[in-house]
Amino acid sequence: MVAPARYLIIPMASPGYLFPAIRLALILQQRGHQVLFAATADFQLTLQQYGMPAVPVRNDGSPFLHPASWFQSESAPAEVSVLRQIAEAFRPDFIVSNPLTLASFILAEERGIPHINIGFSEYLYPGIQETGEAKLWRLKSITDYYNAYRAAVGLPPIACSPEDSPLIGSVYLLRSIPELHDEMKLPPQVRFIGSFYWEPAFRSIGLDHFLERNRSVGRPNVYVQIGRLFEDAPLWEKLIAALAPLPAGFVMDTGRADYLYGSMPLPANCFAAPFIPLGAISSEIGAVISSGQTTSMISAVIHGKPILCIPHSADARELCKKFVARKLAAGIFDSSEIQPQIIQSCLQKWATEKPDLNTAEYKERFLSYTDDFVYSILPGS
What we know:
By secondary structure, the protein is an alpha/beta fold.
């Protein structure tokens, strides 16, 4: 019998980071451990609803630990100071966080405790002896940002190493399956955990009305999760223009958006909100348009939906290419192809023919990783 331990959980300010952290917290609570979230105050109601103790942190101008500012070293003194105070009061045995929550690695290092890293579906860094330039560049870039962040709080730099970088953590929980990663030799700290999918209950009166109108005229619905566009507002405008003339309704989750969708009127066949979990409306959705973000890609597979990928970041492009190669998705990899006729051709084919995709097979594999298994690979379990 493992003695009860304390886990300080530090998610970035986005549902895609919060929800897998809640699932891990539930696993820990069910086994007698104590958890505490140090998170943006924006998450307070959700955390309370699911019985998660939390210290809500407010931040003027943007949420605490916002994904769009993860690399900003000028934030380090305030972020680290707040988290040090919380850790000093709670005295955790473990830190749980995400690959880009830089303060969490400092906290684990200073307190001499393990760091549990809840990763994405695409492993950000190169495998052992891997020579691919993109992932080597990403590791160097993130290490450089981390060293600048460390310097801002008076700490020395770390080395850039694919095998044992502190940025991997004590254990890196990769939300994926080996079948998506070929023969990639990963560091021993990296462990596959399948989908690790969790989402809260959800209801929106406005969305209910939108879906009812579409039902009344026989209009199919498509779920859209575009994620960050890295300030590329014209790409958002191009996508909206491409969807406007199509004979379908588009339910748009604009979480993590760093563009102002309100600056451009939405067409009548689009409904947008900062958070819409696919599971809540799965029965109404025929297909998913995804930018390659982990949550939308995994949820589409879990709910058995064909995926049209439109990636716009390097790691998302890597993941989308894997999904396309394994017949889990179709893809648009050139922004010049974001055209009504191209999108409509794909959606129409799926509406009239059974999609020739491997979704069911991969859904089974993604869901085969149990809570007991995940718990068994945690440090100290």
